[in-house]
């Protein structure tokens, strides 16, 4: 407990933008998020009062960090399960726990487990990818079983020659897609689950560039089915905190599970302004064992556009903000305090309104001004 | 400039809840607010990464703080004008400037200046309060000219015996009130002014306990007149940042100016969730010279209720949060990290909805749970 405030202390391992935005939400709850960052220049380390510098795969650093935390949670999936188990065995509370988190850390485990439970997913194999490709037809999707994120560790294999050696992979059939969706829920230790409206996630080159909330024109039955699926997974795996289930909507109207994340997720950044309770507050409420918050939309249409780093040079980010705010006074900007590198997510923009197409146009334009500077 | 982010550095003098909530808003803009706090246990000092400890009336501390800030702004009105002028003369940018801020610091100066410009206000005097009371009729309102806040330094004098000696005061006629209103605007250095909808502020024992946005049943002409008045004051005084104009609506339907504040203000805390741009973001945008943000409401009815510290003992604040969130999943809580003292503002709660009376009931109930613990 923080004796200054009388409130429990939440620690987050990892100092990226998720921890940065969780700290923002923590402030309202009377909290000050404790952050374990790799570098003092990590996005969350720039803004949080209570920062320790250390690696997420260093047991001594984690142990030191967990001291004085009432609960430890995660900004990413890269803390090795055995370290989480070691700390739990020493009496620390880590949420989500290693038993749940393993399914977000290992794509093979997730597929084996959810497949055995009958959850729908594309045909896949952890075995002979070349034989699998010959069977289901090339091209196929190949993913490293662990360590990938933001499209890294995922590629399309056109032929057996594209299958890598010496790394644990899962191979998956290429599914005829209508689009990608995400079902985001949060679950408390008591088992209360709150579900956000289903969103559409728009990808370019394997990176999410836009999220549309609610998913436009989504069949009501399919929306309920998607929420149900995420609730069942959260409950079945005993997740505590936010669970994002990335989904495929196939051209023949089925839902298939793509990937899981057990932390605040890019597909729900829109909730900061677009839902009554943001995913960051919801994650904190879950790990603090508070009742979940209202997940309703605050506007008929909400669009989030990611801001990717552009080529170096040109207008400063400060000048870009001037132009953006002049053009879109209602665009909500979130910058992550990151050095700009081409293709790196450096922030996002959210636009709310009555018309999805209009919000989309405005959000894309706002993101573009931040990415490229102002051009008529 | 912060070389890590390429963005200008904003410093705020004072480490209270306004700085705390401004830091929250700063994070989204890629900023990390620099805070000058009196104590490391001040609300903002508990959550900001970049905190200096020092007094707001100590020139050396202010000078050290201003170094490396691109702009310095204020969490309160207690920085002496001569210190602001001294720093400005040394080349620092302080917003609002001393010329504007003096009218929020000194109630006599404000009345002289705005009165001379023809702005409407109750009859008042800085001269002989006893003679004034005899003239306008007792009781009258007496205010210390400087240093008051949150109802401190303001009282009702029933007779000449109640008039204090040896302190600079202004005396004011007691106006027949329908209610109190607030007009909040923000102005950029370029002169762009953005106005929030006019709100009703509900007072108990001289302390604001609730804010209703928009002010229920307010005549449209009067609302426009109130906005106009605040815009004219902001422009006339050259305010940069948020300006709150506290107003009386008289029983005969006139608007009279009560007080000014030149900083984010309690009467606009509802904007965090209730407006497209919060007053804290708006204040930052103003002092950073960014174009102002959209001030529209996000729901038809928004109510903010202040949370005052109750008697010591009873349920912990953590337990109270459990009960509150169970009863009102949509209530937005803001705790300021303060030690609880009876009557001290320790946070606020905002409720959004379609019906003002319903929002009011829910906001009061939520605040009450935090103040008193859960009682059926």
Automatic annotation (TrEMBL), chains A, B:
It catalyses: 5-amino-1-(5-phospho-beta-D-ribosyl)imidazole + hydrogencarbonate + ATP = 5-carboxyamino-1-(5-phospho-D-ribosyl)imidazole + ADP + phosphate + 2 H(+). Its EC number is 6.3.4.18. Gene3D superfamilies: 3.40.50.20, ATP-grasp fold, A domain, ATP-grasp fold, B domain. Keywords: ATP-binding, Ligase, Nucleotide-binding, Purine biosynthesis. It is an enzyme of class 6 (ligase). Homodimer. This is N5-carboxyaminoimidazole ribonucleotide synthase. It comes from Dactylosporangium salmoneum. The lineage of its organism: Bacteria, Bacillati, Actinomycetota, Actinomycetes, Micromonosporales.
């Amino acid at each position: 407990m923080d004796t200054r405030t009388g409130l429990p202390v939440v620690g987050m391992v990892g100092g990226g933008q998720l921890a940065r935005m969780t700290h923002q939400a923590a402030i309202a709850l009377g909290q000050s998020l404790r952050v374990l960052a790799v570098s003092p220049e990590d996005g969350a380390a720039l803004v949080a009062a209570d920062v320790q510098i250390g690696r997420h795969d260093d047991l001594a650093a984690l142990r030191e960090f967990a001291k004085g935390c009432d609960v430890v949670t995660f900004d990413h999936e890269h803390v090795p399960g055995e370290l989480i188990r070691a700390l739990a065995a020493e009496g620390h509370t880590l949420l989500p726990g290693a038993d749940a988190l393993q399914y977000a850390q290992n794509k093979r485990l997730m597929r084996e487990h959810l497949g055995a439970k009958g959850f729908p997913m594309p045909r896949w194999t952890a075995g002979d990818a070349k034989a699998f490709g010959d069977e289901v037809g090339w091209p196929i999707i190949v993913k490293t079983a662990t360590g990938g994120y933001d499209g890294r560790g995922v590629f399309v294999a056109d032929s057996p020659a594209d299958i890598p050696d010496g790394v644990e992979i899962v191979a998956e059939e290429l599914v005829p897609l209508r689009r990608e969706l995400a079902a985001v829920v949060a679950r408390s230790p008591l088992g209360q689950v709150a579900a956000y409206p289903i969103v559409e996630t728009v990808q370019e080159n394997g990176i999410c560039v836009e999220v549309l909330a609610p998913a436009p024109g989504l069949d009501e039955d399919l929306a309920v089915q998607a929420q149900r699926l995420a609730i069942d997974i959260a409950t079945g795996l005993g997740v505590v905190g936010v669970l994002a289930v990335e989904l495929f909507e196939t051209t023949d109207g089925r839902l298939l599970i793509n990937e899981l994340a057990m932390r605040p997720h890019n597909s729900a950044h829109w909730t900061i302004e677009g839902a009554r309770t943001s995913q960051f507050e919801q994650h904190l409420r879950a790990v603090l064992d508070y009742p979940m918050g209202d997940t309703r939309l605050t506007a008929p249409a909400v669009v989030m556009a990611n801001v990717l780093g552009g080529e170096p040079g040109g207008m400063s980010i400060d000048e870009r903000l001037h132009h953006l705010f002049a053009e879109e006074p209602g665009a909500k900007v979130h910058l992550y305090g990151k050095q700009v590198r081409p293709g790196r997510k450096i922030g996002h923009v959210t636009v709310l309104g009555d018309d999805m197409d209009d919000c989309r146009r405005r959000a894309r334009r706002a993101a573009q001004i931040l990415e490229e500077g102002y051009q008529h």
